[in-house]
Design brief:
With about 160 residues, the chain is mostly helical. It is built from eight helices and no strands. The longest helix is centred in the middle third of the chain and has 26 residues.
């Protein structure tokens, strides 16, 4: 039972089982979660990100041990966490989501320093998650700079609770 749950969470409801570019599909599958967390407010967003990271560490550790392979490409919960981090405290616009997607995927795929160091040195479930968390943080820093210095990310639409 726990192994099946680990498979579901680690592969983000089997999105990671898509053979071609599972990390990209995992990142795209995060968009509805971003919208949901965004609607719940900034504190709930941060709590949600924290929960995804903790679940990702726990379940990816279990699932990768069952596969016998570290950081298998079908584990995409790390992309979910990374893209959620990348979009933290940003406007919910198509421009922000699109630029965030491409910058995050750039860092996730190429793994420049220090991301590559984390990827090589940290094992287990934490190792699966940490490089994508770092890619998300770096992406967010870049996007925050763009957001505060330009209007490239569009205008923030504020939801008003009725």
């Amino acid at each position: 039972m726990i192994l099946k749950l680990a498979e579901i969470i680690a592969t983000w409801w089997w999105v990671g089982k898509i053979r071609w570019a599972p990390g990209t599909w995992g990142t795209l599958a995060t968009v509805p979660v971003i919208f949901l967390f965004y609607r719940l407010g900034p504190v709930a967003y941060m709590v949600g990100v924290f929960i995804v990271i903790i679940l990702g560490i726990f379940f990816s550790d279990i699932y990768e041990k069952s596969l016998g392979k570290h950081d298998s490409s079908e584990i995409v919960i790390d992309e979910v966490a990374g893209y959620l981090i990348a979009m933290t405290w940003l406007p919910m616009t198509w421009q922000a989501l699109t630029l965030g997607f491409f910058i995050f995927r750039f860092f996730d795929i190429l793994k420049p320093f220090p991301i590559n160091l984390l990827d090589r040195k940290v094992g287990g479930g934490l190792g699966v998650m940490i490089d994508d968390v770092a890619a998300g943080v770096i992406t967010n820093i870049i996007l925050q700079a763009i957001y505060t210095k330009t209007d490239w990310l569009g205008s923030q639409f504020i939801y008003v609770n009725s």
